[in-house]
User: Which sequence fits this backbone?
């Protein structure tokens, strides 16, 4: 199953090894889900996660870019041919939704669920990392 990992999940995983976001990344590669990734989402991951305030202690921007390349290597790389903009309030959220729709992802895993309320109109559900992990536990 394809899912889109919002940047907020990666930021949370870098801040704490105790949370569901970190556990979700530790699941990768997973036979139960595959992150879907577009060029625009990958660019946002790079821009946000290499900011000094998001780098874990002792990790350089170059090391973070290496980690993001690893995540990209595990992902379903998705071309987006149809833009749904403007659909959500934030254009950065629109590009996450566009990746989800184009990749037939059922879920956008995010800490900003309220920002993706309208995603359900396009058949995509915004779900918190902990709820997504719970969903994975119930799969056969």
Assistant:
């Amino acid at each position: 199953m394809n899912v889109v990992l919002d940047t907020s999940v990666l930021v949370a995983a870098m801040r704490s090894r105790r949370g569901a976001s970190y556990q979700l990344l530790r699941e990768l590669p997973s036979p139960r889900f595959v992150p879907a990734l577009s060029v625009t989402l990958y660019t946002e991951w790079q821009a946000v996660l290499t900011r000094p305030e998001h780098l874990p202690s002792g990790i350089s921007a170059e090391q973070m870019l290496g980690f993001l390349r690893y995540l990209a290597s595990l992902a379903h790389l998705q071309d987006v041919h149809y833009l749904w903009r403007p659909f959500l309030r934030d254009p950065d959220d629109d590009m996450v939704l566009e990746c989800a729709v184009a990749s037939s992802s059922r879920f956008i895993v995010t800490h900003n669920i309220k920002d993706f309320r309208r995603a359900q109109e396009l058949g995509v559900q915004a779900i918190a990392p902990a709820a997504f992990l719970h969903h994975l536990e119930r799969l056969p």
Summary: The helical segments are 7-15, 20-26, 39-49, 61-74, 91-102, 129-138. The chain has a mean pLDDT of 95. The two ends are 13 Å apart (CA to CA). The longest strand covers residues 2-5.
